[in-house]
């Protein structure tokens, strides 16, 4: 199925949902419904709410059943990070006969941390003939699907390390606040550390390990603050020298006590060398770097829009970005 023939409902019209609407609209997707609980958005035209620059003739509603009654081919879902919290919304979309592409980070590979929910969603998707996928740039591509694809020309992979450095100054306000930019190190440790981590890193490790046929014993994660060495001012906040600029989050996947997968994510305001880098130990040893890195918000919406035709055409069930055929950028 081509993008031009797809009909869609947007479920959640926050910063990422709005970007998804724009990205999908540019490739010819026809929106037939939109869902959001914000009373200031309900009753408004989707195009106006999402900043498309034109009306799309679709009224935003807080009644999911009403929007899903339009029988869309696909639902673009962007509401929460927790797969348990998202499950009722995802099931409702599947029961309406739609396939779903969601930015719920824990949905990217829920089999490791939430196997019961994964099984429920897989069964619901198969029962109603749809496919459900957790997608985005991270998780969903740069630290899992991309390194898996880059391993194709390798005769042997003994270990893989992925390093992602993001300049949070270029990201949305909620993300800058989430990583603790602008607070003291003491405040970070007391109030933010347990909430500051990027959701989905464990899922990325599990997905990548599965793709490379590693049999993991455990996954371990650590988070620590990155301290600003000079004053950094963004459109939303200021981090003084000595205050927290963001986070360094490292996740390891172990097989037989050896770290075979390592994800190193650094997301902080003022990062002067953003990049995405994959290093393989194996035959041969290989390193691949994307200078500048993929922009988190722009690329997440692009991934979601670009995979939609592949998801709609896929076999029913719970899919992952490494279980589906490769998708490509879809142009106007």
Give helix and strand order, one letter per element, not per position: EHEHEHEHEHEHEHHHEEEEEEEHE
As a whole number of angstroms, the C-alpha radius of gyration is 20 Å
DSSP strand count: 15
The largest sheet is:
7 strands, parallel
> From the structure provided, what is the oligomeric state, counting identical versus distinct chains?
single chain
Number of domains: 2
Distance between the termini: 15 Å
Helical content stands at 25-40%
The low-confidence parts are none
Notes on the protein architecture:
The protein has 332 residues and is α/β, with parallel strands linked by helices. It has 2 domains: 3-135 and 298-319, 3-Layer(aba) Sandwich (Rossmann fold); 145-294, Dihydrodipicolinate Reductase, domain 2. Helix content is 30%, strand content 28%. The protein has helices spanning 15-26, 46-49, 64-68, 83-95, 115-128, 145-150, 173-178, 185-196, 201-211, 296-313; strands spanning 7-11, 30-35, 60-61, 74-77, 99-102, 131-134, 156-167, 218-227, 232-233, 238-239, 244-255, 258-268, 275-283, 286-291, 317-319. The chain has a 7-stranded parallel sheet with strand order 3-2-1-4-5-6-15, sandwiched between helices. It is globular and about 50 Å long. The two termini are 15 Å apart.
């Amino acid at each position: 199925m081509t993008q031009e023939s797809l009909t869609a409902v947007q479920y959640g019209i926050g910063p990422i949902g709005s970007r998804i609407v724009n990205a999908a609209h540019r490739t010819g997707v026809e929106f037939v419904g939109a869902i959001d609980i914000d009373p200031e958005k309900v009753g408004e035209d989707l195009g106006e709410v999402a900043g498309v620059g034109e009306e799309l003739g679709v009224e935003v509603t807080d009644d999911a059943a009403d929007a899903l009654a339009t029988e869309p081919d696909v639902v673009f879902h962007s509401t929460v990070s927790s797969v348990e919290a998202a499950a009722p919304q995802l099931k409702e979309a599947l029961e309406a006969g739609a396939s779903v592409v969601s930015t719920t980070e824990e949905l990217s590979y829920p089999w490791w941390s939430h196997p019961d929910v994964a099984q429920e969603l897989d069964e619901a998707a198969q029962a109603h003939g749809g496919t459900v996928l957790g997608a985005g740039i991270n998780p969903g591509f740069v630290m899992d699907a991309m390194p898996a694809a880059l391993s194709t020309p390798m005769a042997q992979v003994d270990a893989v390390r992925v390093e992602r450095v993001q300049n949070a100054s270029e990201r949305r306000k909620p993300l800058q606040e989430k990583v603790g930019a602008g607070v003291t190190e003491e405040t970070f440790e007391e109030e933010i550390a347990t909430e500051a981590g990027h959701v989905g890193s464990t899922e990325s490790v599990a997905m990548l390990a599965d793709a490379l046929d590693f049999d993991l014993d455990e996954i371990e994660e650590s988070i620590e603050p990155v301290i600003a060495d000079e004053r950094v001012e963004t459109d939303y906040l200021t981090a003084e020298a000595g205050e927290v600029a963001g986070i360094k989050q490292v996740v390891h996947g172990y097989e037989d006590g050896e770290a075979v997968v390592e994800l190193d994510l650094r997301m902080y305001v003022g990062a002067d060398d953003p990049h995405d880098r994959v290093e393989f130990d194996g035959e041969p040893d290989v390193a691949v770097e994307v200078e500048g890195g993929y922009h988190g918000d722009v690329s997440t919406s692009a991934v979601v829009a670009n995979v939609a035709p592949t998801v709609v055409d896929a076999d029913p069930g719970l899919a992952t970005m490494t279980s589906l055929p490769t998708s490509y950028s879809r142009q106007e």
